[in-house]
């Protein structure tokens, strides 16, 4: 009986019934009241801890019924009090095993949820990086093909812009994929992008033929990393949509540094309704998910005077350090 206990993890149910049956036979044939009942109790806990609750309950019921039948038969070896005590022990053991299984299942579900969230985060990063870079490259390549027969010099300038844009896109792509590195590899040294690099986005859009202006207000300070990255990606995706879908020529980026939140908006003069029709795509959905993950809000809709407007409020509670006084500037370089 005890040697079969070693196989309880590989063959839990057969070993369990073997233990229950063997224990019953032992107490019927033996005149020695030994502690063998502890062995099937250990098997019951193992079964419940593995999530085999029905099997463990059935075995516990069989043990109680068997002992109760012996008490009713009047053998004198077992009395009613012992039956109730045994029932309580079996219920407690099965309940403890079920609690153990619930805890393990909850931990595994949490791990799966974290892995899913990380995959979604990486997917959003890849969408933003690749979508922005490829959109700019597409615009410049189309311009180069159009200008090549008439003005090879301007076509060469467009190809230079494509080279610069692809280099920047590859750099961001490597930084994003760095989170998938092996444990023994060194961490990427490139910091996550933030609003300090919004000038790069402005320059990229300007090379694609857009007139982009940045307006900042409020007391500027260093943002929490998550808010800074989300704000950068929202501005990046908004510029990408404006260049790729709305055919905008003028774009205004407004950043307001509030007490406990960052308010930003990106407004263009393109074909607002045309872009609104694409609101179900992954671009706007990704921006909305970024804002909601921080407890903020985001709206993307046609502007009252035409064009399209993306507005976002990103709250935060972390401490921040001021990096300048009150500002109310229009900096086309995005500095």
Briefly say what this structure is.
With about 325 residues, the chain is α+β, with helices and mostly antiparallel strands.
The largest beta-sheet arranges its strands as 4-5-3-2-1-6
Question: Total helix count?
Answer: 9
Low-pLDDT runs = 182-189, 273-280, 325-335
Determine the structural class based on helices, strands and strand pairing: alpha+beta
Shape: elongated
Biggest β-sheet: count, sense, barrel?
Answer: 6 strands, mixed
Rg over CA atoms, rounded to whole Å, is: 34 Å
Q: How far is the first residue's CA from the last residue's CA?
A: 78 Å
Strand content: 5-15%
Mean pLDDT, nearest integer? 75
N to C succession of SSEs: HHHHHHEHEEHHEEE
User: Would you report the number of β strands?
Assistant: 6
**Proportion in helices:** 55-70%
Explained architecture:
- This protein is an alpha+beta fold and 335 residues long.
- 58% of the residues lie in helices and 15% in strands.
- The chain has nine helices and six strands, in the order H-H-H-H-H-H-E-H-E-E-H-H-E-E-E.
- The chain has helices spanning 12-29, 38-49, 53-72, 80-147, 152-177, 198-207, 225-246, 272-276, 282-293; strands at residues 211-221, 250-257, 261-268, 297-302, 308-315, 322-330.
- The chain has a six-stranded mixed β-sheet with strand order 4-5-3-2-1-6.
- A hairpin with a 5-residue loop joins strand 4 and strand 5 (308-315).
- Helix 1 packs parallel to helix 3.
- The longest helix is centred in the middle third of the chain and has 68 residues, at 80-147.
- The protein is elongated and about 105 Å long.
- The chain starts with 11 loop residues before the first helix and ends in a 5-residue tail after the last strand.
């Amino acid at each position: 009986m005890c040697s079969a206990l070693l196989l309880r993890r590989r063959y839990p149910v057969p070993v369990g019934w073997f233990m229950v049956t063997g224990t019953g036979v032992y107490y019927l044939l033996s005149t020695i009241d030994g502690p063998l009942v502890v062995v099937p109790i250990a098997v019951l806990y193992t079964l419940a801890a593995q999530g085999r609750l029905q099997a463990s309950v059935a075995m516990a019921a069989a043990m109680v019924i068997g002992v109760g039948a012996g008490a009713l038969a009047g053998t004198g070896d077992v009395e009613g009090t012992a039956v109730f005590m045994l029932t309580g022990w079996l219920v407690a053991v099965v309940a403890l095993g079920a609690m153990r299984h619930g805890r393990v299942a909850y931990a595994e579900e949490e791990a799966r949820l974290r892995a899913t969230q990380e995959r979604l985060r990486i997917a959003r990063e890849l969408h933003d990086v690749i979508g922005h870079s490829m959109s700019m490259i597409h615009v410049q390549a189309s311009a180069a093909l159009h200008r090549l027969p008439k003005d090879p010099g301007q076509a060469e300038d467009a190809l230079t812009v494509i080279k610069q844009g692809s280099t920047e896109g590859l750099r961001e792509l490597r930084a994003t994929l760095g989170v998938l590195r092996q444990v023994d590899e060194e961490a990427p040294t490139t910091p996550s992008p933030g609003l300090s690099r919004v000038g790069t986005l402005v320059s990229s859009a300007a090379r694609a033929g857009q007139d982009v202006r940045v307006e900042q207000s409020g007391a500027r300070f260093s943002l929490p990393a998550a808010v800074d990255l989300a704000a950068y990606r929202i501005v990046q995706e908004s510029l990408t949509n404006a260049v790729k879908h709305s055919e905008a020529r003028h774009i205004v980026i407004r950043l307001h540094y509030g007490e406990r939140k960052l308010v930003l908006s990106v407004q263009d003069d393109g074909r607002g309704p045309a872009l609104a029709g694409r609101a179900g795509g992954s671009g706007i959905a990704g921006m909305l998910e970024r804002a909601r993950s921080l407890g903020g809000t985001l709206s993307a809709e046609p502007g009252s005077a035409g064009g399209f407007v993306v507005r976002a409020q990103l709250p935060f509670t972390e401490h921040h350090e001021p990096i300048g006084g009150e500002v109310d500037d229009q900096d086309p370089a995005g500095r």
